[in-house]
From TrEMBL:
The keyword Membrane applies. InterPro entries: DUF112_TM. This is Tripartite tricarboxylate transporter permease. Keywords: Membrane, Transmembrane, Transmembrane helix. It comes from the Bacteria. It holds the Pfam family TctA. Coiled coil: none annotated. The chain crosses the membrane at residues 46-74, 138-162, 168-185, 192-209, 229-246, 282-308, 350-370, 382-406, 418-435, 442-471, 491-511. Residues 46-467 form the DUF112 domain.
Amino acid sequence: MIPELLLQLPQLPQLPQLPQLPQLPLPIAANAVTDGIGVVLQWDTLLYIGLGMLVGMLVGAFPGVTATMAVALASGFTLTMDPIQGLAVLLTIYVAAQFGDRVPAILINTPGTPASIATTFDGYPLAKQGKAGLAMTASAFGSAFGMIIGIIVLSLFAIPLAGLARQFGPPEMFALVVFGLTMMIGVSSGRIFKGLVAGAFGLLLATVGRDPITGDQRFTLDILELNGGVPFIPVIIGLFGVAEVLNQMVTHRRNAVQDKPISQLGQWMPDRAMFRRLIKPMGIGAGTGSVVGLVPAVGGDIAGIIAWDNAKRFSKRKEEFGKGSIEGLTSADTSSTATLGGSVTTTMALGVPGDSVMAVLIGSMMIWGIQPGPALFTNDPSLVYTLATILLVATVLSLGLSLVRMKSMVKLLELKNQYLWIIILVFCMVGTYSISNSVFDVFVMLIMGLIGLFMLRFGFPAGPAVLGLILGPLAESNLRRTLIGDGWTGFLTSPIALVLFAISAAALLLPPLRQMRLRRKQALKDKDEGLSVLIP
């Protein structure tokens, strides 16, 4: 009865279909954050972070053993790991080395890594005044603050920068690679021509193997192992690890007196007034390092010097800088570590290494099957927060270890270099062989070690060579795609490519022009002084 009555009721008019609401990005972002953090907060990943921290602190504490060398050596041992675990080891070594390298810079006036060059300006004078402990503590807090600011930069700007670069076509990608190469060459300590030669050498190595378009063999010399190209991990270990050890052997003087580290650490923790005094230089250093770190190839050594100069300009105690200024020390160390976040951002989001350590890291990631570039973070945004969490945990652990009275580090600084050379060479050979169990890789490493020794002795920087080897295939493929599709007009019709080319040209031309102007000004000054002497 009831069903029949329902059938006799008039049908209601069909409601118009509501438009589908767009999905809000907040749940996606929240999932990316939790997924990224959750991957790191597992016992095995935390264990690898702890291992990397110990290695990095030791690496930084030994003068001459750079973070680039340590990451290159560790790359051979991490390639069999899970990519996240491998990244945890390599990034933590990089972070911890930024803390450990301050120890020799302050105690024996020798930078543990290039990033701590500016630390020696005021760190060693403070140590000679009996304030070594205070200097090391202020350096540790400044380094940690700078690192945290860099992590914030990574978290905020990595995904938007990758989204912007995702719109790049072949012309823009080729211009971006040229930009990265020229920036590293432009900051090669004034050695523009030698930087260009080193970059060209890296690009030449990148042509060995199969053609990226046709698949034809090129410059393999009928060596089967070269069909896939020159293996870049052995090249990196040779240029940065073996070459540095060989250079130290060549330049070592048998009867040279080794500087004794200052063992009287004095006061360790700053008081409240001292902490208030450190706020301003830490802010200057963090701001400087954050901006400098976003520029490819400009590392912590340059950022530290710039921040030290800026802090001196705004300080009320300018006379103390260079003679034992706690403000100068803190600003330099804060700035040099703040560059790390920007360096990771440009490396991962653009595929252009921010410095030589990031160039080594790209090599390892490519073997893991991870291709840094615009598509990396847009396809997997959780990776941003994974990297940020790794860096944050490594920073906290390194800060905690740095605040321990490291009298044992003073003993380590007295270790003879000969023992250290043997250890490094053994690790170089074992790490290289373990990549693919290939003796050929070991030969490549040794050959590149000899070439790297030649480069060191004659002033050719290794960074552009490694960058050319890694970015060469990307540059070639995008150049040829542009020429096949649109010809040279493809570059002329792209505003982004033209801007990048203009900046690249400026990076190469401005340093020598500036040097010419300074020499001319000095010559005119000398001429005027000579005339003033002749004319009474």
